[in-house]
Amino acid sequence: xxxxxxxxxxxxxxxxxxxxxxxxxxxxxxxxxxxxxxxxxxxxxxxxxxxxxxxxxxxxxxxxxxxxxxxxxxxxxxxxxxxxxxxxxxxxxxxxxxxxxxxxxxxxxxxxxxxxxxxxxxxxxxxxxxxxxxxxxx
Length: 138
Description:
Low-confidence stretches: none
Structural class: alpha+beta
Shape: globular
Number of helices: 4
Distance between the termini: 16 Å
Number of strands: 7
Strand order of the largest sheet: 1-2-3-4-5-7-6
Radius of gyration: 14 Å
Mean pLDDT: 88
């Protein structure tokens, strides 16, 4: 089950980020609740500017990532925020997150040199057009 707009979801995500991972202008949150009513994953959308919004995901287990949950998380900015793209940033040496973003359908778009706590940041993006053609839509 998805929970949209709960302020505690943002705090839950922040508690799982490395120091310095706070958000600039958070605009929306989505939490993924398991069968026992536990928050197991969450997304904070922030930095909504023109047609773009930034996505930050945190989870306690990979078991949250059902097709329905991913569809809800990825379709939200396109349908509710009227964005044309989603941007995700991660540390360049975080191969686990980078692989996950690729599996979600994000494309590697570049590198922000010396922008992270431990070095470079990798930039990933997903456009609405690509999402509509992806396996997660519908």
